[in-house]
Amino acid sequence: MKIKTIRAKNFREALSLVKKELGPDAVILSSEDKKGLKPYVEVTAAIDYDIDGSIAKDQVVEVKTDKIERAKEVQPRMSTEDRSGDLAGLQQDIKSLRAYIESMKNSGFEFRMPEERRSIFHFLREKSINDEFALKLVERAGAIEEIETVMTDDLNISRTDRSTFRNIRDISAKDNRRITMLIGPTGSGKTTTLAKLASMAIKEGKKVAMISIDTYKIGAAEQIRIYSRMIGIPLDIVANRESFRKSVGRFSDRDLILVDTTGQNPRDAEYISNLKNIYEMGMPIETQLLLSASSDCSFLVDTHKYYKSLPVDYMAFTKTDEAVKLGAIYNLCRIYQKPVAYITTGQRVPGNIEFVDSKRLTNLILRTGSV
User: Fold this and answer.
1) What is the DSSP pairing of strand 208-212 with strand 256-260?
2) What is the pTM of this model?
C-alpha cells in the first residue's frame, strides 16, 4: 500500500493529481480545506497493490520505505532467499496496514472535509453509494440540491421508451440481432423477467419464441413451461450448443428469440466458460445482465470480475421493490459502464417492469430508504 498527501488549488485538481500519481483505483483517506493568504486543498490518498512471490527479480516493488531504498543502495544484488524474506515482511506490513485502516473505518473513522461536503457525503453513504464515488459526487455537486442533476448525468440510460420491441425488425436489421439472452447470478429473476419481456413483445404484435438452456436448477424447466403455456409462445429446452443452434434455426420466422440461462455463482469458472461457448457459435446475440437490487452490495460489485469477460450489452436491475436501498445501482453503473435496459418492481407477469430514464432512476436511488 502506498499513501500520499497531495496539495492543490481545489478539490477537483487534487483528485486529478491523485489519479495521475496513484492511478484510478486510489482511495481518498481525507480531504481538508486549508485557509490562509493562499488557500489550498489537502488530500490524503492510498493505493493498494497486490504483491506476491511471483514478482520478477528486476521488478520494482511499488510499496516503498526509506529503509528498503537504503537497503537497495547498499546491497544492489540480493540473493533469492534474502529477497523472499524481505518480500514476506513487506507483505505482512501491508496486511497490518490494511487491517489498521479497516479498524479505523469500523470504529467510526471519517474523512476530514468541510461541514457542507461532509453532510452530502454522509447522505450518499446512507444510500449505499461507494465512498469513492460519493467523494467525486461531493466535489462535482457542491450543494446537496445539485446531487440529483450530477447523478443523472452519470447514469447512461438508453431505453427510455416503454415500447422496447417496437419496429424490432428495423432495429435488429442494423446489426442482425434478434436473439436476446438474459444472464445473471442465482436468484436474479431471469426466468420471470423473460416472461415479462415476452408478454410485452406479444402485446406489441411481435412473434416471439423462448429457449431455455437452464437444465441446472431443479424446477427451472417446469417454471418456464408454465410461462410458455400461459403466454402462448413456443419453447425449446436445450442442453448443448448443437441443440441450441437447431432451436434458433427452428425459430427463424420469429421476430424475437428470448433465451433463459442457468443462474449460478459467477465465481464458478465452468459456468462462465459455458456461457462463452454460446457466444463462440458466432450468432449475433444481445446480452442483458440481470442483477438483483436486493442482493448484497459487495457481492454485486464482485460480480464485475467475472462478467466483464462476457459481451454484456445492457444491465437490468430486478427486485427493486424488495431492496432497502438502491445505491448499488449507481455503483454498478459506474463500474460496469453499461446502459440500463429496465428495472423490475415485482413478480407479476405481465407487468411490474419499468423502462426508466436516467432522471427517474436517480430519483429512485435517492428516495428509496428515506424516512
Assistant:
1) parallel
2) 0.69
Cis amide prior to 39 (ω within 30 degrees): no
Report yes or no: 335 and 301 within 8 Å, Cβ to Cβ. yes
**In whole angstroms, how far apart are CA 269 and each of 11, 305, 307, 324?**
42, 11, 11, 31
Strands (E), 127-228: 179-183, 208-212
Is 363 in contact with 148 (CB distance < 8 Å)?
yes
Task: Look at residue 208 and give its three-state secondary structure.
Answer: strand
Angle between helices 358-367 and 327-336 (to 10 degrees): 130
Please state, in angstroms and rounded to a whole number, the distance separating the CA atoms of residues 338 and 302: 16
> 290-316 pLDDT, tens per residue?
999 999 888 988 999 999 999 999 999
d(CA 352, CA 228): 18
Amino acid at 152: T
**H or E element: which one contains 365?**
helix 358-367
